[in-house]
Amino acid sequence: MSNDAATATGAPAVDGTRTEPPTHGIGASLPPADARAKTEGTFPYAADLWAEGLLWAAVLRSPHAHARIVSVDTSAASEMPGVRAVVTHEDVPGDPAHGRSVVDRPVFASDLVRHHGEAIAAVAADHPDTARLAAAAIAVEYEILEPVTDPEQAFAADPLHPDGNLIRHIPLSFGDPEVTGEVIVEGLYRIGRQDPAPIGAEAGLAVPRPDGGVELYTASTDPHTDRDRAAACFGLEQERVKVVVTGVPGATGDREDGSFQIPLGLLALRTGCPVKLAATREESFLGHAHRHPTLLRYRHHADAEGRLVKVEAQILLDAGAYADASSESLAAAVSFACGPYVVPHAFVEGWAVRTNNPPSGHVRGEGALQVCAAYEGQMDKLAAKLGIDPAELRLRNVLATGDLLPTGQTVTCPAPVAELLRSVRDYPLPALPKDTPREEWLLPGGPEGAGDPAAVRRGVGYAVGMVHMLGAEGTDEVSTATVKVHDGVATVICAAVETGQGFTTLARQIVQEVLGVEEVHVASVDTDQPPAGPATHGRHTWVSGGAVERAAKMVRTQLLQPLAHKFGMSTELLQIADGKITSYDGVLSTTVMEAMEGKELWATAQCRPHPTEPLDDTGQGDAFVGLAFCAIRAIVDVDIELGSIRVVEMAVAQDVGRVLNPAQLATRIEAGVTQGVGAALTENLRTPRGLIRHPDLTHYALPTSLDTPDIRIVKLVEERDVVAPFGAKPVSAVPVVTSPAAVASAVRAATGRPVNRLPIRPQAAVAVPGP
Q1: Which letter, b or e, does each residue of 190-204 get, where b requires 16 or more Cβ atoms within 10 Å of its Cβ?
Q2: Which terminus of the chain is less hemmed in, N or C, by CB atoms within 10 Å?
Q3: What torsion do the CA atoms of 520, 523, 525, 526 make, to the nearest 10 degrees?
Q4: Contact between 156 and 732 (Cβ < 8 Å)
C-alpha cells in the first residue's frame, strides 16, 4: 500500500507515523447499518414478502427469438383450479409499452415476438406451482420468422420494430480528417454479452389499494421512474400508484426492468388481491437487460515517438430487441473511444441497432468498458510496433486537466492520469512462481489442471480507463433530501436507493459530520418522498449526498442561530466538532445534545449539478458533468499450451477526489475489479440464433473467490473536484471498465497473441510456435 493509500485508511505510513482515522463522520470506516441483518438473514428482501390472501404470479415467455403470434388461447389456463386471472396484451388498460429511455417495449407481445424470453401473458394463482403450470398451459401458435442476430445485418434487414432498426447514429468529427501519422496500427475487437447476474432473486409484491390504485413492493433502483412507467401502463394517475423499495441485494443495472413489475400490478388490479412474483434464475436471464455486445474497428496514427496523431474508429452496439439505455451507452462509447489520451484528430462513428437478440441495457460502465478494451489493445499494438515500453507509450499520451476530449469538452475536473499510471508501473512486482510450485492451485487451471508448469508464462499488462459521472447530454440531475433532528436523534429522508454503493452509510456520515449527532437513521424509500433519481453513474454519492449535506447545514444554522444571537456573534464563528459547539474565542462551549434538548429541527434541500448539453450532429458538446479515471497493472500466468489463464495480481490506482469511507471505498474498488475480471475471462452469455443457450449459473461462469486475484490498491489520489459535494468522485464503475483491458494486455504480453475478443477464449491464449 502506498503512503497515500495508507494514510487514507489509517494504516502506518512509509515514514513510520500513524494517522488514526476518525470514528464517525466523513473519513470514518463506518460499517453499513444493515450489515448485521443481511448477515443473519433477517433483511427484508422482496422475495421474503408476504400478505394476507396472497396470490402467486408466473409469466409465459416466448421460446423463439423472432416469430409472428397467430393466436393465443388462455382458456385451458383460466379453467385450471386455483387460477384467479390470466392477462395478455388485451388486458393492458393504459399504454401498451414501456421503456427506460424510449417507450418501445410491449408489456406483452401482441403481434410479434422480437426476442427469446419476451413476455406473452401472465397468470395469478393460489400457489406458485399452479401459476407456472397455468402459464405453460396457455396455447400460443407461432409463425416462426428468421431472426436477425448479426448487428451488421440489421442495417439492411426489414424493420424489426415500428421505430426501425437504427436506434442512434453518432458521427464524431474532431480535427483534420486528412492528417496521417508516421506509424499506423489497425484492429478489430469484439466484446461479448455480460449478464449483470443479480445476487438475489428478482421479485416483487403488488397490493391493490382501496382507491383503485396499487402499491408495488420491489427492489427498484429508480422508484419514481418505475412508478411513472407503471401508472401509464395501468391507465392510472401517478398518485394512485406507489412504489415501495424493499431491500436491494445489490444492483449493477439489473433492477430496472419493468417486465417484472408491470404484470404484477396488472394481476393485482384484476384480482383485487396481493400478488407476488419470485423469478427463477432462468426467468432472470430471459427477462432483464445485459451488457451490449460490441464490434469495434480501430485505426491509430502516431508519430515516430509514439505520440498519437489521429484515431479513427467504428463502434457498433447490439441493442437487442428494444432501445432501453442504448442511446446513452453509445454516447459514452463514442465520447470515450480514444480513452484518457490526448488525440489532436479523432473521427469516430457509432451506431446502436435493434436485433432479435436479448435486450441490452444499463450495466455498470456501459459503453466505456467496450471501447477501453479496444483502445488499449491499440496502444499495445503501437508499443510493439515502435519498440516502446507499453507503460511509457501511454505516459507520453495521457490526458491532464485542461486538455480537450474529442467531443470538444475541456477537462476541468482533476485528471491525474499520469500519476495513476506511474503508481501502478512502479509498484513492486509479485514473486515469480517456481517451476514446480508446492501450491498446485496457483497454476492456471488449478490443482486438476492438465498443464505442464514449464509451459506457464507470466505477462504484465497495463490499462487506463475513464467514465463519466452522473447523467449526460442534458439530463436534469436533481435530488431532494430532508434532515430531521428530535431529541438528539437525526433522520434522513431521501428517495436515493441503497443498492450496495453505500449511500445510507454516507448519509449517516454526512449528518454526523455537519451536526455532530451520533445516532442517525435513514428512512426507507418510497414514492411518497420527492424523487432522487436512478442509482447509476455514482449519482447518489454526488447529487443525493449533496442534498443531504445542504439540508444538514440548514439544520445546523437553525441550531446555532439562537446561541450566536445570545452571545452577539454570527453562526460562522461557531463550530461543531466531537459532539461539542464552541466559539472561536472559547467563550461558548456546550454539547450538541444540550443545545438540541427539547428542540425539533428539520430542513429540506435539493442538489442540482451544473447543466450539460446533448452531443450535436458532429459529436461535439459539453455532455458530461465530470470524469473519473483509473489505472491498473495486471499480472497473469498463462499456460501457453492449453490457454489456461490465472490472474495473479491487479495493482490499482484511482482518482477518487476524496475518501469518504475508506473501508467502503476499498470494497467497491475490489468488487469492480472482480466484475471486470469476469468480463475478461469467463462471462459470456451465448445466444446462437438469438436463443439464450444456458440461462443458468452452471454454464454462465461467474468468477468465484478462487478466480479473484490479489487486488492491491496502491494509490488513491485525493485531488478534490471543486464542483462535487465533498470533492468526492464515485469509485465503482471505473475499475470495472479498466480491468478487462488490463487483463487482455497482460495476456498479450505473456503469449504474443493479439487478444482482440472478450472474454478471452483459451485458443486466443495459446502461444504461436516459433519458427
Answers
A1: ebbbbbbbbebbbbb
A2: C
A3: -150
A4: no
The pLDDT of residue 154 is 97
Locate the DSSP E strands across 137-273.
139-144, 166-174, 183-191, 203-208, 214-218, 241-245
User: Own/partner pairs for 700-703, CB < 8 Å, 24+ apart?
Assistant: 700/195, 700/197, 700/285, 702/197, 702/678, 703/674, 703/677, 703/678
Report pLDDT for 21: 67
Look at residue 181 in the predicted model and tell me its pLDDT: 95
Cα angle: 121, vertex 109, 353; to 5 degrees: 140
Q: Cβ-count burial of 688 within 10 angstroms (0-12 exposed, 13-18 middle, 19+ buried)?
A: exposed
* Ordered DSSP codes for 236-290: --GGGEEEEE-B----SSTT--HHHHHHHHHHHHHHSS-EEEE--HHHHHHHS-B
Tell me how many helices (H) and strands (E) the chain has: 17, 29
Tell me how crowded residue 548 is: count the other CB atoms within 10 A of its CB.
32
Q: What is the structure's pLDDT at 80?
A: 97
Instruction: Give residue 242's pLDDT band: very low, low, confident or very high (50, 70, 90).
Output: very high
Could you tell me the pTM of the whole model? 0.93
CA 167-178-392 angle, 5° bins: 85
pLDDT at site 17 = 41
Q: How open is the CA angle 596-600-605, to the nearest 5 degrees?
A: 105
pLDDT over threshold 60, residue 598: yes
- Strand, coil or helix: 298: strand
C-alpha cell at 100: 427506460
Q: Rounded CA gap, 206 and 227, in Å?
A: 12
Kindly compute the dihedral angle of the four CA atoms of residues 615, 617, 619, 621, in this order, to the nearest 10 degrees: -40
Cell of 756: 482482440
List pLDDT tens digits, range 264-300: 999 999 999 999 999 888 998 998 889 999 999 999 9
For residue 47, give the C-alpha cell.
Answer: 422475495
Q: Identity (one letter) of the amino acid at 70? A: V
User: Residue 586, Cβ neighbours under 10 Å: how many?
Assistant: 7
CA–CA separation, 416 vs 4, rounded Å? Answer: 14
pLDDT of res. 770: 52
Q: Which amino acid is at 590?
A: T
| Angle between helix 545-566 and 503-515 (nearest 10) | 10
The C-alpha cell at 414 is 482533476
Q: From CA 238, how far away is CA 215, in angstroms rounded?
A: 11
Query: Which residue has better confidence, 438 or 621?
Result: 621
Query: Pairing state of beta strands 710-717 and 645-655?
Result: parallel
Instruction: Write the pLDDT tens digit of every residue in 613-629.
Output: 999 999 999 999 999 99
- C-alpha to C-alpha distance for 317 and 315, rounded to whole angstroms: 7
Per-residue confidence (pLDDT) for residue 439, from 0 to 100 = 60
What pLDDT is stored for residue 581 in this prediction? 84
